[in-house]
Amino acid sequence: MASPSSRPIWFMAIVVGALAVVPVALLIATHAWSGLYGQDAYFYQAYATGELRAALLDLRAPAPFTWPPGYPMLVALTSLVTGLGQRPASW
After folding, report:
1. What is the pLDDT of residue 91?
2. Which end of the chain has fewer beta carbons closer than 10 Å to its terminal beta carbon, N or C?
3. Nearest alpha carbon to residue 76 among 36, 48, 51, 55
4. Residue 67 belongs to domain spanning
């Protein structure tokens, strides 16, 4: 067996890349994908800076959300410190 130092660097890069990509590709191929894509990011942002932020300010339970509120909660809490800024007119 060849020592690791005698293998070309491109071979090692392919192996490391495959170790990172193959498991993720298998998960995506075998499970329903519901990650952030398309308009989902805007949906998260609108919920976080709208209903969730208002609920936090009013000290009440927020309305149900389609996905777990981890990212929206971080955005809502950050907006309490930084403010909302300018929203695009399309929101």
Report:
1. 53
2. N
3. 48
4. 40-82
